[in-house]
């Protein structure tokens, strides 16, 4: 059972669909998909680059560097050149506050 830490508020997104935060020392990208908030480690497993500005298509984020795709829910690497999953985090929204489990 993870510990949940208050990490942001829904207002912090403004009009954006994503928000960069840190969970302990790990860069994490919060992504708003319809009415759900998802959280992934913001580091591509191919070459350690940030996924921050990657396109989001069909439930996956595309690494802007070499085009690897990762499932936003499971973190699974869906195509080369990445072969290892990215870490994902549980998210709870309580009122306006966003909590991330770690
Ligand atoms: S750094 Fe992401 S695909 Fe290469």
UniProtKB/TrEMBL annotation:
Keywords from the named record: 2Fe-2S, Dioxygenase, Iron, Iron-sulfur, Metal-binding, Oxidoreductase
InterPro entries: Rieske_2Fe-2S, Rieske_2Fe-2S_sf
PROSITE patterns, A to Z: RIESKE
CDD domains attached to this UniProt entry: Rieske_RO_ferredoxin
Coiled-coil regions, chain positions: none
UniProt keyword Iron-sulfur, yes or no: yes
Alphabetized Pfam families for the sequence: Rieske
A Gene Ontology molecular function term of the record: 2 iron, 2 sulfur cluster binding
Entry superkingdom: Bacteria
Segments traversing the membrane: none
PANTHER family linked to this entry: 3-PHENYLPROPIONATE_CINNAMIC ACID DIOXYGENASE FERREDOXIN SUBUNIT, FERREDOXIN-RELATED
Name of the protein in its database record: Naphthalene 1,2-dioxygenase/salicylate 5-hydroxylase system, ferredoxin component
Species annotation: Gimesia algae
Phylogenetic classification of the source organism: Bacteria, Pseudomonadati, Planctomycetota, Planctomycetia, Planctomycetales
Gene that produces this protein: nagAb
């Amino acid at each position: 059972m993870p510990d949940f830490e208050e990490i942001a508020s829904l207002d912090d997104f403004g009009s954006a669909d994503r928000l960069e935060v840190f969970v302990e020392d790990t860069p994490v990208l919060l992504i708003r998909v319809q009415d759900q908030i998802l959280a992934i480690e913001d580091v591509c497993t191919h070459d350690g680059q940030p996924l921050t500005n990657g396109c989001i298509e069909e439930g996956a984020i595309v690494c802007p560097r070499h085009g690897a795709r990762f499932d936003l829910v499971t973190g699974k690497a869906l195509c080369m050149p990445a072969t290892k999953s990215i870490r994902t985090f549980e998210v709870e929204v309580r009122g306006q506050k966003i909590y991330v489990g770690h």
